[in-house]
Q: What sequence folds into this?
């Protein structure tokens, strides 16, 4: 995240609606990608979810006929706010969602709501767990379903432990699920012999593998031994779609994290010297794509700037009695996959395909119902229903 400041000199944060030093009304303007002061001359107004529910600080043009900002318009279903406890849970969801969207805006990726773009848009359904049938977080044909209960720290931590995950965050969920959306839009209808699709298969495996079988295998047998040597997470081993979504999510995590470090002038610590740099070969694109040695080097330098800080992050959190901030080790195959994601996200983005007509639009889920039992294909079908 960038570092913002008020004209009075005070530091502003992405979530602020007001400058706490001079009292100016502030908000985030997604069109400008920055925090701006809200004045009668600014030509801007607040998203209605700010004054009405206190869950949004984004702005939109005053003459816009919409009352909600571009982030809130993505919501197709919001939780029942008459139910006690739902409002703060939803607020946390919205914060994480806006942070993801800000990272995408930084990449030049605009996401439109399904209402405005019925074939290529995206929608979010925030569903409380008590709904019947019970809901799991997942993605299907332009719609990301989010289990509201995931915003409850105790529930999310319990699920994290049950699944043996090193990290489980709301922001991670939003990044991961949009990974499925973008895969569908960018790769879903590409011919199997399209160079990007060939490159994808070489790195992540055959996306045509039966998802339900893969899911069953993952939850009955667990990840293969030694998965750390090739994957970014145990969950990534389940299916090439999940590997892509996990790698996409990790890429956005580094992008956002490093931007924040550098915006705040966080220097490399002494521990950074102990990190062995990744070899050049780990950052080359698959052979069937145009080779870009200069860009490979830029990518590696970028990645090193991040991983060299990782020991410092983890030591700081240990000093504060907190779990590791960055509990990941990047293997060389994982670095190659990140390089491919970087290529796709920055310059090699395929022309968007209409999500709704993408080949094999199969619902995917990233989380079994919390806390138990573990997911079954039947549960997955319920999500689709
Ligand atoms: Zn101020
Ligand atoms: Zn909003
Ligand atoms: Zn997933």
A:
């Amino acid at each position: 995240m960038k570092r913002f400041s008020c004209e009075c000199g005070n530091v502003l944060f992405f979530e602020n609606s007001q400058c706490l030093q001079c009292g100016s009304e502030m908000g985030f303007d997604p069109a400008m990608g920055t925090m701006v002061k809200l004045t009668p001359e600014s030509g801007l107004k607040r998203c209605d979810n700010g004054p009405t529910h206190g869950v949004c600080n984004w702005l939109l043009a005053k003459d816009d006929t919409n009352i909600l900002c571009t982030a809130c318009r993505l919501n197709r279903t919001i939780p029942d706010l008459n139910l006690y406890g739902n409002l703060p849970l939803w607020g946390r969801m919205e914060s994480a969602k806006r942070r993801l969207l800000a990272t995408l805006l930084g990449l030049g990726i605009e996401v439109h709501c399904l209402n405005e773009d019925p074939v290529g848009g995206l929608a979010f359904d925030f569903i409380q767990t008590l709904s019947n049938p019970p809901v799991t977080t997942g993605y299907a044909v332009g719609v990301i379903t989010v289990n509201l209960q995931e915003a409850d720290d105790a529930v999310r931590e319990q699920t994290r432990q049950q699944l043996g995950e090193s990290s489980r965050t709301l922001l991670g969920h939003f990044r991961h699920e949009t990974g499925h959306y973008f895969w569908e839009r960018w790769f879903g209808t590409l011919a199997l012999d399209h160079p990007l699709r060939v490159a994808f298969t070489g790195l992540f495996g055959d996306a045509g593998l039966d998802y339900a079988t893969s899911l069953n295998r993952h939850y009955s047998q667990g990840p293969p031994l030694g998965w750390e040597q090739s994957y970014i997470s145990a969950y990534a081993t389940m299916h090439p779609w999940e590997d892509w979504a996990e790698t996409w999510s990790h890429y956005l995590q580094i992008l956002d994290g490093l931007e924040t470090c550098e915006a705040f002038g966080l220097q490399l610590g002494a521990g950074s010297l102990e990190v062995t740099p990744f070899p050049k070969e780990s950052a080359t694109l698959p052979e069937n794509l145009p080779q870009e040695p200069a860009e490979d080097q830029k990518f590696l330098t970028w990645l090193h700037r991040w991983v060299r800080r990782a020991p410092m992050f983890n030591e700081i959190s240990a000093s504060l009695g907190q779990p590791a901030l960055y509990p990941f080790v990047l293997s060389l195959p994982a670095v190659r996959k990140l390089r491919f994601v970087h290529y796709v996200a920055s310059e090699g983005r395929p022309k968007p395909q209409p999500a709704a007509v993408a080949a094999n639009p199969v619902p995917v889920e990233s989380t079994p119902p919390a806390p138990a039992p573990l997911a079954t294909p039947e549960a997955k079908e319920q999500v689709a229903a």
Q: What stands out?
A: The two ends are 37 Å apart (CA to CA).
